[in-house]
Amino acid sequence: MDKKTIFIAFGNQKGGVGKSALTTIYASYLHYELMKNVIVIDCDYPQHSIVNMRESDIETMGRNSQLQALLEKRFDLTGRKAYKIIKASPETALETVINQLDKNKVPVDVVLFDLPGTVNSQGVLNVIINLDFIFIPIIADRRALNSSLSFAMTLNKNIQDTTLACSLKGAYFFWNKVDKRENTELYEIFTELAKDMKLPILKTQIPDTKKYNKELSVTRTDIFRSTLFPPDKRLLRNSNLEKLVTEINKMIGL
User: Which end of the chain is least crowded, N or C, by CB within 10 Å?
Assistant: First the structure.
């Protein structure tokens, strides 16, 4: 290929912080809205939630004629087919994506890996050290923050291990599910701690809003999280998604 494909992930060993949801929404925004060519490798065993979402999206499409018409209209306007979502184990993820990139007729801009929580397996570690960037969603919960900090410290330890051929250029926290009504003390304490440990935090914060859970439905066409559509423009307001995408894309050189 003429230009390098960027490998990234939204990763955390703590469940419930939104990594799979953000992977899906970011991939769909890039592919359908910004016209970047994307592949998602779902190696989040055993749930494979993004693979399951694609299957659910296709099933829902078959039961909603409005959605079918909307998808046809988008295709006529943009010519964008659905991006590939490939199921793999952490052990086979890199080989799988390399084979796919070799077969792809169109250059791929970004490959997103949806990872399982643990960083202590050789397969997951091997994927992470071959990423270009990893973005770690964090939420204002003490246990979740301790787990996220442990995850980042483990990453840094492996990045600094000279016996590993590590491609990772950076690991970045960002606040997710931010509720402005919450006490900000926890945000301030963790931000200072991360700063002291030289663990960067992105400027963009994602608010705690139900719109991030709006999936395809047979009863509505306002969609935010889907593998077949970009987020609805009406729902993007106050979501901070566009700010997050802009900040990440600038960082990764996209």
Answer: N
> Right CATH number for 6-252 from 2.60.40.10, 3.40.50.300, 3.90.1570.10, 3.40.1260.10?
3.40.50.300
Successive 10-residue mean pLDDT values, the chain, 254 residues = 79 82 95 95 89 93 88 89 93 92 90 83 82 91 84 73 72 88 78 83 92 80 89 91 96 91
User: What whole-number distance in Å separates Cα of residue 153 and Cα of residue 135?
Assistant: 14
Nearest to 175 by CA among 118, 211, 215, 135: 135
- Burial (Cβ within 10 Å: 0-12, 13-18, ≥19) of residue 236: middle
Q: Where are the domains of the chain?
A: 6-252
| pLDDT score at 1 | 37
Half-sphere exposure (Cβ direction) of 169: Cα atoms closer than 13 Å: 8
- Encoding tokens for residue 115? 């990872």
Q: How many DSSP H helices and E strands does the chain contain?
A: 9, 6
User: In the chain, at which residue ranges do the beta strands (DSSP E only) sit?
Assistant: 6-10, 38-42, 84-87, 110-114, 133-138, 170-175
User: Residue for token digits 């998604």?
Assistant: 241
42 alpha carbon, distance to own chain's centre: 11
- pLDDT of 230 reads 92
Which are the contacts of 51, defined by CB distance < 8 A and separation ≥ 6?
A: 42, 85, 87
- In the block, residue with structure tokens 């939204």: 10
What is d(CA 183, CA 207) in angstroms, rounded to the nearest whole number? 14
Residues present in the chain in total: 254
